[in-house]
Amino acid sequence: MRTPVRCVLASLALLGSTGCLIWPFPTGSILAGRGRVRQEDQTALVIGRTTREEVLLRLGEPDEVLHGGRVFIYRWTQDAGFFAMGGGGSAVAIPFPSHRMLRLAFDSEARLARLDFVHQDELSPEDREAAKAEQPGD
Amino acid sequence: MRVVVASCLAVVLLASCSAPALTPVKPEESHTGILAFLKEGRTTREETLLRLGTPDGRFEGERILTYTFKKGPDGWLREGRAWNEPKKRFEYTGRSGFPCNLVLVFGAEGVLARSTMVITQ
C-alpha cells in the first residue's frame, strides 16, 4: 500500500518540477539591429520639413539605403516575451521576436516625404526589387 | 498580501521594460580619443579621411559621411560590416555589443559643420 502512495507522490513531485511558462511581456532585449527608434523620435520627424541630414544626425546610418538614397530603412527586432519550458534539471527559453521597420522616403529636395512604421521585417515588392538592383557586385 | 503586491509590482516593472533605443550623443561627450581631432568649424573632410579612412556610408555627394565604431575599454574602435547573402543586406560583424554610428556633415567648403555619435541605450 505504501509503494503506490510513494509512486503517486513521486509522480506528483516530477510533475511539479516540469512545466512551461508563456511570458507575454517584453523583457527589453534587442534580438537584431542597432536599436529601436523611439516614439518621440518618430513624432519629431515631420513630413515636408525634416531633412535627410537631420534624420542621419538623429538616427545614424540606416540599415538599408534604397532608390539612390531616396529611401532609408531602419529595422530592429525586439523580444515580445518568451516561452519557457523546464524539467529534469534543465530548461529552455525561446523568445518571441517582434520585427519593426521604419521606412523614410525623401523628396528631390532631401526633405521627408513619407514615413511608414511597420511591424514586419519584409520589404515591399518595389523596395525588394530596388535592394536587389543595388546589392554589391551587381 | 505583501507577496501579492510585490508580484504585481514585479510584473508591471518587467512589462514596462523598454528595449535600447538609438540615441544621439553631443560631440563634446563622444569626440574623445581617436575622435578628439573632430572640431566643428575647423576639421576638414580631407583630414577626416586621412585619419579615419574610408567611411562606411556617404550621402548627398559625400557631404555627409558615416563611420561605425564600438566603444572598447581603451576608447573607440572601428567596426566592420559584411554582406549577408541570405538576408540580402549588410550586417555588423565582430565584437559584442551595439555598434555606434558617427555622422559627420560637412559644409560647402569641406569643413565639418555638424556631427553626432548615435549610440544605443
Summarize the structure.
The complex is a heterodimer of chains A (138) and B (121). Chain A is α+β, with helices and mostly antiparallel strands.
Shape of chain B: extended
Query: Radius of gyration of chain A from the CA trace?
Result: 24 Å
Low-confidence stretches of chain A: none
Work out the largest interface and the residue count of each chain. Answer: A-B, 33 and 34 residues
Number of DSSP-assigned strands of chain A: 6
Strand content of chain A: 35-45%
Instruction: List SSEs of chain A in N-to-C order.
Output: HEEHHEEEEH
Structural class of chain B, by secondary structure, is: alpha+beta
Helix percentage range of chain A: 25-40%
| Approximate shape of chain A | elongated
User: Taking all residues together, what is the mean pLDDT of chain B?
Assistant: 83
List the domain count of chain A as a whole number. Answer: 1
Structure in words:
The complex is a heterodimer of chains A (138) and B (121). Chain A has one domain. In chain A, strands 1, 2, 3, 4, 5 and 6 form a six-stranded antiparallel sheet that branches. The radius of gyration of chain A is 24 Å and the shape is elongated. Chain A contains four helices and six strands, in the order H-E-E-H-H-E-E-E-E-H. Chain A has helices at residues 2-16, 39-44, 52-59, 125-134; strands at residues 19-23, 30-32, 64-66, 71-87, 90-106, 112-118. With 138 residues, chain A is α+β, with helices and mostly antiparallel strands. With 121 residues, chain B is an alpha+beta fold. Chain B has one domain. Helices cover 21% and strands 36% of the residues of chain B. Chain B has helices spanning 2-15, 27-30, 45-52, and strands at residues 22-25, 57-59, 64-72, 75-78, 81-84, 89-92, 100-106, 112-120. At the A-B interface, helix 3 and strand 4 of A face helix 1, strand 1, strand 3, strand 6 and strand 7 of B.
